[in-house]
Structures are given as structure tokens and as C-alpha cells.
Amino acid sequence: MEEIIYNQKGGKMGKIDLPSDIFGLEMNNDLVRQVVSAYLANKRKVIAHTKDRGEVSGGGKKPWRQKGTGRARHGSIRSPLWKGGGVTFGPTKERNFSKKINKKVKRKALFMSLSSKVRDKEIVLIDKIELDEVKTKKMLGIINNLKEKIGKDLKKGVLIVQPGSDRNISLSSRNIQKTKVIRADNLNLLEVLSYKYLLILSPEETIKLIEKKYEI
């Protein structure tokens, strides 16, 4: 699979053969949906929590004697029958929503999504981006130079994948709407699907890092 490499001005720099085991897979929507569901479940935080009768305060003493008062028998004001008592069958922090993701399945789903973006012309390979200072306007200009290659509707999101950490690129991109910079070794399915377009910097080095991480 041959793809064109561009420079930051939008000019052609050359071509590269993309490995078919990463960028040449057929899409399996059910598998991708399964992995996305697991990602979202694992990110879910348990917020709602109610106290049962063992957690509410008070109730160390029997409210009144068992017999002779004419009132119903009670052993503790912490009973769910009492106002301020424990809650029966309420939500607790002990709930676990996490799902196990098989390593090979997670890898395959990511590669399927990358393959889909290649087929839909939503991936642009860039030789490198050089910024001598942190400047949002310059970074936006570079993205606009690639508009014809990426797509005119940049509001749908641009994910910039780089092999290492470049402070100028990261800081210059953070105020651009729906744009994010990520390292190649942190690339995951959820990020790829959250942004319509992918800009891959230094493609040879980036692809090697992806292959190394996923042991290809």
C-alpha cells in the first residue's frame, strides 16, 4: 500500500509502503464495537453511593424497651424503616463495571480502524513539523496547508500522531478546536475513532513504534 508523504506546506516529499497487517485489514464492526464498549466501561467511575445500615451513624442503643410501650418493636434507628436509616439495595462504590479486553482483540480493532481511515482517505502522512516557538497561529496555518489532503471540514477533529514528545507542537495545538496531539506508543482505538482525520508525523519512525508496542 503506497501513500504519499507531504511536508508541512502541503508539498509532496515522496512515497512510503504502509504495512498491510496494520493498514490493510477489513473492518469488523462488531469487534470494534465490543472493544469500544470495554474501553468506555473501564473508564467509568462509580459516583453514586448510598449507606446501608452498617454505615449510617447512631443507633447504638435500642430506641425503647421491647415490650410494654404500645409501640412497634425496634432494635436500631439505623434500620431502613427509619428516616435517616440505611438504604436497602441502593447503589454502592463497590460496583465494578470493568470489562476484560483480550490483547489481540484490542490490537486488531485498532488496526481495523486505521485501515478504515486509509481507505476513506482520512490519513495524511507528514515528513515532519518544525516549529521554532509555541504559536497556535502557525500550527493552524500548517493544518490549513493540508486541508485538501485531510478534508475541508476540520471541525470533525484532527488527531496528530507523533513518534516522540514535541513541546512546541503539543502546546501550539491545544487551543485549536477538536485537535489533539498523541504519541505513537499511546495510540488507542478510542482516540482514533474520536477524531475524523489522522496526521501521522515521521511515518517510518511512527509505524516502527506502533509495530514495537503491539509486537508485530
How would you describe what is shown here?
Part of the 50S ribosomal subunit. Residues 62-76 have a biased composition (Basic residues). InterPro entries: Ribosomal_uL4, Ribosomal_uL4-like, Ribosomal_uL4_dom_sf. A 6-stranded mixed beta sheet has the order 2-1-3-6-4-5, sandwiched between helices. It has 2 domains: 2-29 and 101-213, Ribosomal Protein L4, Chain: A; 45-96, no CATH class. Helices cover 34% and strands 14% of the residues. A hairpin with a 5-residue loop joins strand 1 and strand 2. It has 8 helices and 6 strands, in the order E-E-H-H-H-E-H-H-E-H-E-H-E-H. The chain is of the alpha/beta class. The protein has helices at 20-23, 29-43, 103-119, 136-145, 147-150, 167-173, 189-194, 203-213, and strands spanning 2-6, 12-17, 123-126, 158-162, 179-183, 197-201.
